[in-house]
Amino acid sequence: MPSESLDSKSSKTAANRAKEEPIESRFLERVLGGISLKVLEGFCRRMATGLKSGVDLLRLLDLESKAGPPRHREVAKNLEQELRNGFTLSEAMSRQGNYFPALLVKMIDAGEHAGGMDRTFREMADFYQDLKKTRSDFISQITFPVIQLMLAILIACGMIYINGFFKSGSPQEPAFDLTGIGLRGGTGVLLFISVVGTLFGTIGLVAFGIWKNWFGCHKTLVPLVRNVPVIGTVFTTTALSRLSMTLSMMLGAGVDAKRSVRDALLSTGNFYYISGIDQTLAAIGQGKTFSESLAAPEVLPSDFIQALEVGEMSGSDSESLERMALIYREKSQIALKQLAVVAGVAVWIMIAAMIITAIFLIFFQILQVYTNALKM
Asked: Could you write out the DSSP letters of every residue in 205-250?
């Protein structure tokens, strides 16, 4: 008996220690996110198939820990151990740092409460498959223009380096400047690369800051850009697709109204929409409908509210939201393709501007040489 009591105490102590010591997230995962879309889709698909077939969850995680990238195998082992320590799957996933997307964790939590995790995993597998395809299409369309831009920059570097070989005929005459901007040789190349790197680095930093909502920029930017063609469409339709899908699945899973709406708004990742959570929940507490509650903060587009109101009138909230999620997902995919085209055109314009500028600079330099020769 004493040994059994000691074993029981030690197991409880281990479980409590596991609950008190969440796994630290890694730096890159904290900044950029963890699991890749390809691995994420495969994970959700395998879990959906296994759970639908009645395979034990611990057995599925054990299989996950034997295949895939090293980090994924490590996380699968952690999940299995966390389940043995008494955590639910969603709790265990949330304790893996930023490895799993917050949206997936919330959806699994809803599926656990409703007893439909296989459906949740299947829906999320389809969602991440579409997201992976859209991202792949965007990258494939923008890759060639970006390569051309890199080649244009390399050509400019070559011109600057060659410029260093031109010498003046006399101390009174300046040396021929092929570029017209005074940069020469290796030093000029380094200075040019530094300027270009700073320019693109600044653009990347600004884009990253907008993505992460630095200084609460979503609150100011979203109202400004959501009506802008292409860019505004990407901003709004992606968020509304997530909101519709999350709210549909949670209502279908039987989750209470306040929690469903709160998690649905959080799933958008759009802090302008998230800012209306308190007003929306207060309206739900007053007994108002979903459309009335979501319209209260006046942050969501009117067409979304109208579509939701029609679904409520027909008595099919969940099904209506599911259809809306598909419509907004299709719109976001089209908008991303259009954005790739616009970005490609912008790169082409940059390249053309560089070429035209270089031609004029060289022309004026040659003209200056002839002018000086005629004066002599």
From this structure: HHHHHHHTTGGGHHHHHHHHHTTSTTHHHHHHHHHHHHHHHHHHHH
